[in-house]
Amino acid sequence: MGLRYIILGGASAVLSAAPAFAHAGFLLPNTFTAEEDATITAFASFSDAFPAPEIALVSDSFAMTGPDGEAASFETVETFKAVTILEGTPGTPGLYRLTTGERLGRTGKVALSAGEYVRLGPDGETPDSLPDDAEILTSQTATVSESFVMVGTAERPAMLATSGRLSLMLGDGEAPLESGHPLTASFSFDGEPLSSDEIMLIDAYGHYASGEDGLALSSGENGKAALPALTPGVYVLLARHIAEAPDGAETDVRSYTTTLTFEIPGAAETGN
To answer: What is the mean pLDDT of the chain?
Structure first.
C-alpha cells in the first residue's frame, strides 16, 4: 500500500469531537507492506491536520528495528522546514519498527493540584484558575512516534506495541487488525496499566470530513480502551501522560506523548 492510498483513504465519520491536543508528531511510511530489499521512505512531522506536514520532526534517534531486535540507522535523513524525510533498506523479511526514539523538547510549567497534574497554557488551565495551594512545577516534553512496516513474507500482525515509558498496544494478538473488527488498545506507563482520558484516535484527513481533530478515548483501570470498527485507511493513536521526571532530569516532571501510525487495510489487501 503506497502513499496514494494513504492520501485517498476514507475518513471515518465516527471520529468526532476531541480535546484540543491533536498537535502531535507522527512517523508515516510510504507503505506498510514492502517487498524484500525495497527502500522504505518515511516522513516525520508535527501537525494539527494529520498527515499534512507542518513542522519538521527532528531526532537524533531515528531508527529502524528489524525482527531480530537489532536497530539500524536510516541511510538517508533530510530535514526541510515542514518535514524530515527518511530512507532505509531493510534486510530479512519480517516486521520492522520505525521510530523517532524518545525526543526531549520544550520546557514549561504544570501544576500539581489535589494530587493531580494539571496542564497549563493554551491546552490547559491558567494559574489564576487553580486553587491557592496548587504547586507550580517545571516540565519538559518527551515524545515518541512510531510505525511498523511488514517486509517480504511477513504475516500481518494481530498486535502492534510501541516502545518507551508511555507505551501503546493496538490489538489483542487474536483479532486481526482489519476493517470491520472492533479493536482494543492498551496503555501502560513503566509497564503498569494506565488509566487516562488523554487519548485520541486521528484519521488521515478526517478533519475535512468532520471538522474535528479526532475521537477522544479513555482507558479504564486495566489500561484498556475500546476502539470502534474502523474503515480502511491510515490512523494515528495518541496518548499523553504527565509523570515525575527520571533522576537527573532538568525538570520536575515530564509530559509524555506517544503516537502510533497504523493502517487498517481493505478486504483486497487482507485476502478476504
So the answer is: 86
Give the residue among 5, 268, 2, 251 at the shortest CA–CA distance from 140.
Answer: 251
Q: How many Å is the Cα radius of gyration of the chain?
A: 18
Give the separation between CA 31 and CA 35, rounded to whole angstroms. Answer: 10
Q: How far, CA to CA in Å, does 124 sit from each of 92, 119, 253?
A: 46, 5, 16
- Model confidence at 102, pLDDT cuts 50, 70, 90, reads very high
CA-to-CA separations, 172 to 119, 129, 160, 184, 251, in angstroms, rounded: 32, 41, 9, 6, 36
Environment class of 246 (CB within 10 Å of its CB; exposed 0-12, middle 13-18, buried 19+): exposed
Pick from 176, 172, 187: which is nearest to 150 by CA? 176
pTM for this prediction: 0.88
- Copy the grid coordinates of residue 262: 497504523
Alpha helices in the chain, H assignment, sequence order: 3-8, 206-210, 267-270
Among residues of the chain, what percentage have pLDDT more than 70?
A: 87
